[in-house]
Amino acid sequence: MHKNPVTIGPFESVGRAAALMNQLKIGGLPVVEKGKLVGIITSRDVRYCHPNRLVADAMSRNVVTVSPECSFWEAKEIMESHGIERLVVVRDGRTVGIITKSRLYAEIGKHVDALTGLNRAEFLQHKAAELLQSGQEITIIFLDLDNFGTIDKEFGHVIGDEILQQVGKILKSVIAEGLDYLCRYAGDEFAVVTVRPLEEAKQLSWQMIKALAGASWPQGIHVTASAGVAGGRRSRVRGEPNGTHNVRDLINLASLASTKAKREKRPVVVAGWVELEEVG
């Protein structure tokens, strides 16, 4: 976010607001009165408003705000759901920053894997925590390609990269938007957080494995994978110390299950359910 943004008072003129925006090359100003946010005025608001009118007459009073702890993805969803270009960041009723759409998207772009176009691991952790906060049970599918190191050594990294790109496309074609959230976790590892029940998630992992095994690959390479599945639900008692885990533990359980699947030459291993700590 842009910290300590320039603000304007509600009883200053629209012309003053327009001049500030032109001078600073920004598209909007939080409107603050006695230290409290009371509105926002944008370049669109001032465009057809007489410069002698008051900011209070031209500003939007219903300002969409977020806290400094808001994640990139949460801010993106809020911005898109309201169809706005900027979010005012507020702490204890005071304006501490402003997030613009262009800057937010640039930051999110840093968390997208350049090779596959999929989100990175940070997104999976964020989405899992968000789903848990909304009261949904979640399941993690952790998928690890078999013998990818050997493929890289025998056929080279260019072919290896082609395979990883194709894996991303195939997995994306199998998952369902709104139910499953896919990322390239690291290297030749991919992961999905899903709101499907454990048994359905297990079936999805089988579909992913079969889709990879049945695809045509560069130079006739046979690509297979091993999957681990682990589900979690929120503990009902906040701070319950015994037997609870967090999202990172759940991802780790699924990861270990995929390692076990690979070791035992089983396509899918289910680790089962765990109780997860309250989040947020």
Automatic annotation (TrEMBL):
* Boundaries of every GGDEF domain copy: 136-274
Under InterPro entries, the record lists:
CBS_dom, CBS_dom_sf, Diguanylate_Cyclase, GGDEF_dom, Nucleotide_cyclase, Rev_trsase/Diguanyl_cyclase
Question: Which residue range or ranges hold the CBS domain?
Answer: 1-58, 59-115
Q: Which Pfam families match?
A: CBS (PF00571), GGDEF (PF00990)
Identify the PROSITE patterns for this entry: CBS, GGDEF
Print the keywords alphabetically.
Answer: CBS domain
Q: What's the protein name?
A: Diguanylate cyclase (GGDEF)-like protein
- Natural source organism: Desulfofundulus luciae
Q: What is the lineage of its organism?
A: Bacteria, Bacillati, Bacillota, Clostridia, Eubacteriales
